[in-house]
Amino acid sequence: MSWLSDQWKEYELLDASDGERLERWGKYLLVRPDPQVIWQTEKTHPGWSRYDARYLRSSTGGGHWSDHSLPERWKIHYRDYLTFYVKPMNFKHTGVFPEQAANWDYIRQTVADAHRPVRVLNLFAYSGGATLAAAAGGAEVYHVDAAKGMVAWAKENAQASGLGDRPIHWIVDDCGKFIQREIRRGRRYDGIIMDPPSYGRGPGGEVWKMETSFYPFLLETAKLLTENPLFVIINSYTTGLAPSAVGYAADAVFAAQYGGHTQAEELGLPVTSTGRMLPCGATGRWTP
Asked: What is the DSSP letter of 58?
């Protein structure tokens, strides 16, 4: 089983072959590398020869976008409640992970269905998709990311989505240090979302390594839940962890303390040319 993000109209995964994706972002076609695309099917879609930009990997690491005439950034909309600024950046990213849409819908609906005040913490929050989904459902949200530029980008997405006046707290901080301060403050959350990197550095040079940092981080994060929590959502893409590993870790921490269970599945995007699904990482959703 998987969670398929198939409700997009302005994003489309047109084809995937030979280590690359062919994608439509609004009216622009991009070609980006993807390590999951291990097959070499025939590239019959005309977009493969008339894309607007292509990310080219360097043999020495990193890469760059091909010469193109794209605008600096442009907007795309998800359903009737989210708007994002798209901008091709270093390391092939665009500022939006479209496969996360399945989580956005889940978050918004779960918060709205609670019919009570809900406070959500989004850690490693990037450009704010999950933050905005929680706010759209009616939650007070604490958005935490170590990159000042990404927090500013998320704010712009909130404004574009008509959510600029919602109770969202924008915080530039190392996530580990932030949760320690929250524990001391006694602030608690009904929902926690996290998308930890495989490796990273905080604004003060703090080192994060998934294999040594993740589980202790979960143990500390569990101290921030209220007595009546709604969910904990853990995303994993860059680490290549199996969904069952994410689920096992979440149950070992959250189910052990609060009961409930973690459902962990692959996130996926439908490939228009074949009707098949491209796997895009793992998500675990713990609920009491």
From this structure: -
